[in-house]
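Support request from a user on the community tier.

User writes: "When I paste my structure tokens into the form, the page sometimes reloads and wipes my input. The last time it worked, I copied everything first. Here is what I submitted, just in case something in the input itself triggers the reload:"
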């Protein structure tokens, strides 16, 4: 009877943890946000999203209590101009990873709810196609970290 109770407790625990079960093999490495002037309406979020599972996973969204919205974007070159393109999803291949970096894939963090400065820790929840979520804490850092500066020469596009 004791073994039956332990199995039941384990099953209840797995059920309660179910929202994150599919992402147990997905890991966020080096999450950071580029510091911007206090008046900035958008900041960039960067990381490496690593998939250690045997199936591809698709990131379809993100949210943060510190921003009014979080969007998935990719910067591409089009006719000599940098262009940010909204992404409906970003697929991470099985046993692979996708790097979110300046000049490439990134989280576009819109309308900060308070001043965001270097050293701050920002909670962001990543959302996947299968309904699972993965919380991550991003550190705000100064500078461009080797990437393109935000601003001039950049245009936004809603296409994927």
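"...and here is what came back when it finally went through:"
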């Amino acid at each position: 009877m004791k073994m039956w109770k332990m199995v039941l407790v384990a099953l209840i625990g797995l059920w309660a943890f179910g929202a994150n079960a599919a992402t147990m093999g997905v890991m966020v490495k080096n999450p950071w946000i580029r510091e911007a002037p206090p008046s900035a309406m958008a900041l960039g979020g960067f990381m490496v999203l690593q998939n250690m599972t045997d199936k591809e996973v698709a990131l379809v969204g993100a949210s943060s209590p510190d921003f009014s919205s979080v969007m998935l974007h990719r910067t591409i070159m089009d006719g000599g101009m940098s262009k940010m393109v909204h992404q409906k999803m970003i697929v991470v291949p099985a046993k692979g990873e996708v790097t979110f970096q300046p000049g490439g894939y990134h989280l576009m963090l819109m309308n900060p709810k308070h001043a965001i400065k270097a050293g701050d820790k920002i909670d962001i929840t990543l959302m996947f196609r299968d309904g699972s979520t993965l919380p991550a804490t991003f550190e705000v850092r100064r500078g461009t970290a080797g990437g393109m500066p935000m601003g001039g020469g950049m245009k936004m596009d809603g296409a994927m």
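Agent notes: The reload is a front-end session timeout and is unrelated to the input. The first helix runs from residue 2 to 16. DSSP finds two helices and eleven strands in the chain. Escalated to web team.
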